[in-house]
Amino acid sequence: MQAVLVDQLRKANRRITVQRMQVFEGVKGLDSHPSALEVFEAVKPRLPSISLATVYRNLHILRLEGLLREIHCDRGITRFDSNLSEHYHFHCTSCQRVSDVPSYSREIERSFSEKTGLHISGHHLTFQGLCNDCLKVEPSR
Amino acid sequence: MQAVLVDQLRKANRRITVQRMQVFEGVKGLDSHPSALEVFEAVKPRLPSISLATVYRNLHILRLEGLLREIHCDRGITRFDSNLSEHYHFHCTSCQRVSDVPSYSREIERSFSEKTGLHISGHHLTFQGLCNDCLKVEPSR
DNA sequence: CCCTTACCGATAAAAGTTCTCAATAGCATG
DNA sequence: CATGCTATTGAGAACTTTTATCGGTAAGGG
Question: Which nucleotides on strand D sit less than 7 A from a protein beta carbon?
Fold first, then answer.
C-alpha cells in the first residue's frame, strides 16, 4: 500500500515512520483540503501521542518531496491537497470548504507565456461561490 | 481627489481620517501588492505616529467596503491590491513579488457554472513562474 | 544486534493578525 | 463657531498559525 509514496520517501533519504504515514493518510482521508490543525485532529485518535509540530514537519516534508500540494484561499491558512493531478478548486466563501474541480487547461499557460514572454511553471485557478449546502441556508446572495 | 473613495466611505458611515486615506494611498502607491507590514512601512514616513493596528484595521475596512482586494499567494501572507478592475496575477516564486496580468475572462465562470450548476461569484487565476529579474540571477529552473 | 542519525514530543519562540481600552478627533447639529 | 455623539486612534496585550530548539527515540543499514 502506498508504494509510490514509500519509494519516493526512501529515494529522498526520508524515513518511513508511523507519524509520517498517518499525516499523509490524514490529508488523503479528508477530501476537504484540511489545514494542519485539521490533519492533527484527524490523526490524533489513531496516534494519541502525536505532536502538532510533527504534523507541521511532515506536511512540510511531504510537500517538499512533491507528495502533497499546498493551497492558499483564506487569509493566513494553508490547506493541503493530496490530489496531485492537475485540477482547479472551488472555494465556498461561506463555509470556507474547498473542493476539487476536475478540469484543467495547459493551454492557458501557453497563451499567457506567448503573450508576455515570461517563464511559466504553473497556474492556479480558484472559483469562489456558495456551495449547495450554504446556498440552502442563506439564499440571500 | 479620490471622490469615489470618499463618497463610498461616507455612504457606509465611515469617517474620512488621515490614517485611512494614507493606508489607501500606501496600497495604491506600491504596485507590488503589498502586505500589511509593507503598507505600514510605506505610510510611516508621512505619518510617523501611525500604529500597525490602524493599518490592519483600515485594510480590513477598505476591503469590506470593496475599495481594496485581498490576494493569497504565499503561505500565511495576505496581500492587498488597489486595482479593482478584473485581472489576473503573476507570482514570481523566487522574489515572491506579485504583478498584474491585464487579461480576464468572464467566460470561464459561465462555462464552469453551466457545467456544475454551482453559484459562482468570482474566480482568481494566478500564474507562477520566474520574473525576468530572477531568471537572470538563477537560470537553473 | 549495533550504530548512526533522521525523527519524535514538548515547549518556546516567531510571525502575522486581531482585540481591548482610554483618549482623540470627525462631523452632524444647533 | 461651540457642543455632543461616537467612530477611530495608538499602544500594547492577546490570539492564531507556523517554525525552531533540544534531549530522547527509533528507523534502517551494516
Answer: 7-13, 17-21, 26-29
